[in-house]
Amino acid sequence: MSEVVNYKISSSILNKWQDVLNLISKTFNITNLIIAQIKESNIELLIESDSCNEELILELKEYLIQEKKVATDKEICSEELVLKNPGKKNYFGYPIKFSNGDLFGVLCAANEEEMKFNAATRCLLAEFRKIIESDLRVLYQEEMNKFFLEEYKIENQKLVEQLLRSEMKYKTLFSTSTSAIAIFETIKNKSGELVDLLYKDMNPANEKFIEITKDKAIGKTLLELFPNTEPEWIDYFNSVTNDFKNTNFYSYHSDIGKFIYVDSFPLSEEEFAVSAVDLTDQVKLKEKLSEVENRYKNIFYGSSSVMMLVSPENGLIKDVNDSACEFYGYTKRELLTLNIWDLNIAGKVTVWDNIEKAKTNSKTIFKAKHRIASGEIKDVEISSGVVMVDGKELLHSVIRDVTERNKNLLKLTKLSNAVEQSPASIVITNIDGEIEYVNPIFCKVTGYDIDELIGKNSRILKSGKQSAIVYKDLWQKISSGEKWEGEFYNKRKDSSYYWESASISPVFNDENSIIGYLKVALDITEKKQIEAKLTHALLKAEENDRLKTAFLANLSHEVRTPLNGLLGFTDFIGDVNLTDEERKEYGSIIKDCGNQLMSIMDDILDASLLEAKKLQINVESIYLDPFLSGLKSLHTVEAEKKKLSIKLDYMFNPNFEIHTDKGKLLQVLNNLIRNAIKFTEEGEVLIGCESLKDSVLFYVQDTGIGISPEHQKVIFNRFRQIENHLIRQHGGIGLGLSISKGIVELLGGELWVESDVGRGSKFSFTIPKSIVK
Question: Which residue of 35, 453, 550, 751 shows the fewest CB atoms closer than 10 Å?
């Protein structure tokens, strides 16, 4: 510890500390303020406030020594010193340190009663500690170096200015306090008894409190301003000045017209301060509460509703009214021996949970089952909330018997759920056809929300596609009390149409008058669609039979033609008189007839495999540049026979590669190219290819006869070729495009056509760049 500990503190510094200490003590009514110096294991009291209780200060000093607070830096050297209270004492303070961090002592406040040190008090004590530590720092420098005397004077002047600023802060706190504070000077008679009080100062809150400005009050006495001041006030203030101790009391002041709580404390032998709080509203509230409590008791005991008071602490029934005794079948004495869970069959845990909820929410309603004295179980609803009765918190519970209501509600719930969950649409209207109720399935079928239907006329569903005779017959029957059954073709919210089979009946009241109508309907749209599909399928089957008959007739012709050529030229080639050139020509014809016959058989086989979904895929790598070049070469001779040019249209890297079934890709392109050459008399055939993101686009474009829009819809169907009289002359069995479409879809792609009659056709298809098997 620093050697400065042994240096004597000058009287001027001690006097300054004493003045500040007294100022803080008077301003904030802190009676016991001390500055103590710690020397080794002892505490030396340097200064204390004028109002200090010597016994209390000695007790604090003894406590610090006994508890060895001075022997450790852990608590007393912390930023804020808050000591555990011995007995009922309350201490608060800050450590005082030298500039090098060594401990000098403590600035401490003590009080006999519990005292809460607010932020303002803590702030001022902390600031005062800084002033003390600044003085110590100057003292340390003065002892170390006498040459710094001038600097000390400058620093001391700053501290004086700081003290003045602190005093201004105290005055600011006084003037801005929300409590009404006044400072009085005593006026005593010759015998030393207090007879009146002279106003010396007051804050703005006090001006508002007494409704007299400070200028008019200063210099006047209490009895001059308020001549009817109750004598007990003077008696209380007399004890403040004579006994020099704090006094507080509660009284009504007739001149001011308020119930006031007064706290007074001495500032000097001649002056004391008074702090006043208006309790008028609280007193009136208390009177009102008493009135309400009496009214509550009258309602409680006289009510026909079942009521009881329950302790939230132990669940005991504390009070009941006569209606409760009648409902439960117990006498009042018997009920007051029970806990609430003795009635509630849910058990103790559930009841405690409900009690906790009721304590925090005054609008809590519980549903429960209570067992009455006869053993019968009753359904009840309990409304519980906290009330004050004779100064104690109790739970006020109103119990309603809802047993019969619940039985009726269960019946209604079953009926309501049956209607709500019905698979049939249910609509209720008034006698004018305005909708009053619809169930959820009706909204699902029509697409309307309930709010869009309620109040609307049922005509909102009319499609305009049904005969008025139907509606006329409907209204004639139901308005005369009869039931109507039939079918509607109605319109949904999204303007789509639907069929329903409906039964509409009138609803009668007790006087047998019609008060509305009930419609129960089933959506039969799907049924109608199935019927339409069956009709379409029947027509389709009939059409297929016709097409197959025509196909077989055409197939017979298409097979017979190459077969006749094959047989005929086989006979010719055996003639010994043929030249080599003729024999070679006949052999070529025989080969062509065989290939044609084989092609027909392949088409029939592929068609059957596709239909049976048994056509296999063999994936391999294909470099498109040589593949397309070879494809062109394959058909060049055939095209040149008709004086047609055949061209390729693609732009990509020669090494561009795809992974698919080469044979089936070749089969599709061959079919399309042959058709293009077959149906083109002049012009050209263009074979194109384009790389897309994940797929490849192929197309075959010609300048042939073209295809009409109506035929474009059916050319991919089997056997359809034979119906087109414009192309029948070109031969074929009508399976090529159907097979091509099936293969493209098998490869994961899509085939389509774009065509104008007389201008040509363009067949396009896409397939993935790589097929994952």
Answer: 550
CATH number at residue 731: 3.30.565.10
Instruction: Please indicate, yes or no, whether residues 274 and 289 belong to a single structural domain of this protein.
Output: no
Name 577's Cβ contacts closer than 8 Å, sequence gap at least 6.
none
pLDDT digit string (tens) for 251-302?
888 888 888 888 888 888 888 888 888 888 877 777 776 777 677 777 888 8
Q: What CATH number does residue 305 fall under?
A: 3.30.450.20
Question: Does 186 lie in the same domain as 166?
Answer: no
For residue 414, give both structure tokens.
């079953």
Amino acid (one-letter) located at 766 = T
Q: What is the pLDDT of residues 13-27, one digit of tens each?
A: 888 888 788 877 777
- Look at strands 684-691 and 645-649 and give their pairing: parallel
Q: How far apart are CA 512 and CA 221, in angstroms?
A: 92
In a domain, 415, yes or no: no
Structure tokens at 304: 């026909």
More confident position, 242 or 342: 342
What total of structural domains would you count in the chain?
Answer: 6
Whose CA is closest to 736, among 707, 765, 716, 753? 716
Q: Kindly give the residue spans of alpha helices, DSSP state H, lying in 279-347.
A: 280-302, 322-328, 332-335
720 and 622 within one domain: yes
CA 670 to CA 29: how far, in whole Å? Answer: 112
| Domain CATH code at residue 547 | 1.10.287
Where among 278, 310, 335 does a domain terminate? 278
**How far out from the chain centre does Cα 138 lie?**
64
232 — phi, psi (to 5°)?
-60, -25
157-171, 554-568, 675-689 — which one is most confidently predicted on average? 675-689
Chain CA centroid to CA 348, Å = 35
| Sheet order of strands, 484-491 included | 435-438, 425-429, 514-523, 497-508, 484-491
What is residue 684's predicted lDDT score, i.e. its pLDDT? Answer: 95
Q: Give yes or no: residues 145 and 82 share one domain.
A: yes
Same domain, 399 and 516: no
**pLDDT surpassing 80 at residue 120:** no
Residues in the chain, overall count? 773
Distances (CA, A) of 45 to 34, 49, 91, 451, 463: 7, 11, 16, 85, 105
Chain segment 519-541, per-residue pLDDT in tens: 999 999 888 888 888 888 788 77
Neighbours of 206 (CB within 10 A): 22
Cβ partners under 8 Å of residue 129, min gap 6: 94, 96, 107
- Overall pTM surpassing 0.85 (yes/no): no
Give Cβ neighbours of residue 17 (< 8 Å, ≥ 6 apart).
35, 46, 47, 132, 135
Query: What is the rounded average pLDDT of the residues 110-122?
Result: 64
Q: Are residues 297 and 331 in the same domain?
A: yes
Task: Taking the CA atoms of 489, 493, 496 and 501 in sequence, report the sign of the dihedral they define.
Answer: negative
Cα 38 to the center of its chain, rounded Å? 62
Angstrom distance (rounded) from CA 490 to CA 498:
5
Looking at 175, 204, 229, the residue that finishes a domain is: 175
Q: How far apart are CA 636 and CA 266, in angstroms?
A: 127
Percent of the chain predicted with pLDDT > 70? 80
Do 136 and 186 lie in a common domain? no
Statement to judge: residues 518 and 493 lie in one domain: yes
126-166 per-position pLDDT tens digit = 778 888 888 887 776 666 655 444 444 455 555 555 555 55
Tokens representing residue 562 in the block: 């190459």
Domain span holding position 214: 178-278
Beta strands in 297-411 (DSSP E): 306-310, 317-320, 364-371, 377-389, 392-401
Query: The tokens 């379409």 sit on which residue?
Result: 536
d(CA 38, CA 177): 36
Instruction: Identify whether the C-beta of residue 687 lies closer than 8 Å to the C-beta of residue 673.
Output: yes
* Alpha carbon 623 to its chain's center: 57
Contact call for residues 311 and 394 (beta carbons, < 8 A): yes
